[in-house]
Amino acid sequence: MSLQLECPGCRATLNVPDELAGKQGKCVHCGQRLTVPGRAIAASAGPPSGGLFESPPEAMVRELFRRQQSALLLVFPQPGDGSYDVSNMPETELKCIATEDINQARFQQLVASFAQRFVPRKKGQAGSTTEELYYELKGDRLSMTLEEFKRKYERSGEGGVRLPLCSDTAWGANKASLRCEAWHQQANIIHARVDLPSEDNSPTVAGVKTELLLYQFIDGKLFRMIALFPTDKFHLVSEAAIQKFGPVTHESQKPRQLAWENSAAWVTLTRGSVHPPEPSVLELVHRQLQHLAESRMPTSAADI
Quick one: pLDDT at residue 128? Predict the structure, then answer.
């Protein structure tokens, strides 16, 4: 006699001899590794009488999908050396099973978002700090200090003006080009840029010349970067951003916006308009420092 079971990889129906019950093998159609259940389990459409979590992994995932749940199950022997690096683990010891709705793109999104969302919550874990989750643009990382920024971009500009241009040292037209507000000085917020408007040499993002690349610091730490660029080049920047920051976390259409976020920071890419011309905006924000800046904004009663 033979058992009938469904391959979790290609969904083909397999006829397996009784004597192979409880053993491992490969699907003859797609090569997926699977465990042959006992006859009582194979004949049942649902989980065995012992309960879902006494089922073989494949049956567990099938039952979860039947319950309208998504699942990604990675099964391997508990490492004796304490290392959870599965990159070199033999295929015979590693099994990855997913519900039917998880395709390759969704698998990649799940892996990336899992690392961003859950790993930082494990406090005290070696090699896992919130600092590692701050986004960066052109090598400038959120939370970098103002001193580091000034050292990196130090040079002489047109007319002997020292760069980078910072609102704590700039004056006149230069200060206006930094888009400062009156309350920023009292709130210890510094605006900076690495170019002079008169030089017409704005930095590029994804090969696209920006209309403005502005850095904002609070208490000497970088909490916001904002880049304005022509909207007809939005597709070039969006393609580069996806390649740099990974799968998009949130997406909307009106206005067209892509967003990436984790527990420490977020990035938004918002499309402007061509007619009338409005620039598109790429923005990187440090969560904690942004909240600090917002707490120092004048209240409506004071701002009059």
Answer: 44
Does one domain contain both 176 and 235?
A: yes
Nearest to 55 by CA among 105, 93, 5, 119: 5
AA letter at 190: I
134: nearest Cα among 265, 263, 248: 265
What pTM value is reported for the model? 0.58
pLDDT digits (tens, 9 = 90+) for 179-189: 998 899 999 99
Domain contains 183: yes
E strand intervals along 42-166: 72-75, 95-98, 136-137, 140-141, 155-156, 162-163, 165-166
Asked if the structure places residue 111 within a domain, the reply is no
Q: Are residues 219 and 153 in the same domain?
A: yes
Expressed as residue numbers, the domain containing 168 is: 133-295
Q: And the tokens for 216?
A: 């904002």
Q: Cβ(63)–Cβ(8) under 8 Å?
A: no
Sequence length of the chain is 304
| Same domain? 285 vs 159 | yes
Please check whether residue 302 lies inside any domain of the structure: no
Bond from prior residue into 247 cis (ω within 30 degrees of 0): no
Rounded CA separation 304/302 (Å): 6
pLDDT in tens, 29-75: 777 777 777 544 444 444 444 455 556 888 888 888 888 888 888 88
Q: Cα(241)–Cα(137) distance, rounded to whole angstroms?
A: 10
157 and 287, same domain (yes or no): yes
Alpha-carbon 167 to chain mean position: 32
If one counts the domains in the chain, the total is 2
Structural domain includes residue 177? yes
Nearest CA-CA partner of 188 in 293, 283, 291: 293
Span 62-109, pLDDT tens digits: 888 888 888 888 888 877 666 677 766 777 778 888 888 888 777 777
275 with 147, same domain: the answer is: yes
Tell me, yes or no, whether 72 and 186 share the same domain: no
Q: How many CA atoms lie within 13 A of 201 on its CB side?
A: 7
